[in-house]
Please model this.
Amino acid sequence: MGGLGAFLPLLLIIVVFYFFMIRPQMRKQKELKTYRDALQKGDKVVTTGGIYGKITSISDNTVDVEIARDVTIKIDKYAILKDSTDLANQK
Model:
């Protein structure tokens, strides 16, 4: 029993770390992947670099984003963080 008692605090720390750090991060990554897979033409997005724009076309791994009138950039799909309308709802 003494050997098990010594490992109990370490096991408790690992369990707490999993539920408060690892599991929420995995859930957030899953939600972000689902969001990126559901992107459509016309969606307003924000990139990891802070660029706001509207999607004009989508291919397998890249997205064309219009950032100003007649200014379109091609970015990797994984550089998109969220829908910019989410930011308007937070204010």
